[in-house]
């Protein structure tokens, strides 16, 4: 049975989702604040939920603050905000999907089904072998990234970009190739936003190691720098 974590402080919404998701064959868990949700995810270890339904307006840690810390669990944001910029921001921050409150139950169930189908396909193609480049280690099994001896928290898109570059450490990966290879799992990554995702990834790796690991090849794409003892 697929497990869904509902992160929302609205009792009526939690009760409604409990009934609807139970009828659809899902098991549900609840967190009433962002801080409680973060503790839940840390304590559950490898038995993470298969999907998370996340409200943004939470007591304590907000949904926007929690989202980048969730990791590889697909997240559907449930928000009363209707502004397009708000939706774009949560997608860029790592959400898999966003649905506006109030929503139709049939639509929510369809979106959940799509995300769970996508996560199953992703697991079928995961390779257990870790990728290592200089001070960076990427474990596809756990989707954990360590750099400079510490864990680096990446968004889903940043992780996908880094994984692609580390699988091809001596190649220049064109922008088109990056978009083609990761677009199925990261719909928030577009031609216009790719540069921002790479810039954020470079910054996180630089903060952890004190070095630049990714370089832009003007007019073509990106590659890993070859001056880290990785020849």
Describe the structure.
40% of the residues lie in helices and 20% in strands. The protein has 231 residues and is α/β, with parallel strands linked by helices. The protein folds into two domains: 3-124, Response regulator (Rossmann fold), CATH 3.40.50; 131-224, Arc Repressor Mutant, subunit A, CATH 1.10.10.10. The strands form three sheets. Strands 2-1-3-4-5 form a five-stranded parallel sheet, with helices on both faces. The protein has a four-stranded antiparallel sheet with strand order 6-7-8-9. The protein has a three-stranded antiparallel sheet with strand order 10-12-11. β1, α1 (11-23) and β2 (27-31) form a beta-alpha-beta unit. α6 packs across α8.
Briefly say what this structure is.
This protein has 231 residues and is an alpha/beta fold. The protein has helices at 11-23, 34-43, 63-66, 84-92, 105-124, 156-167, 175-182, 194-209; strands at 3-7, 27-31, 51-55, 75-79, 97-100, 131-133, 136-139, 144-147, 150-151, 173-174, 214-217, 221-224. The chain has eight helices and twelve strands.
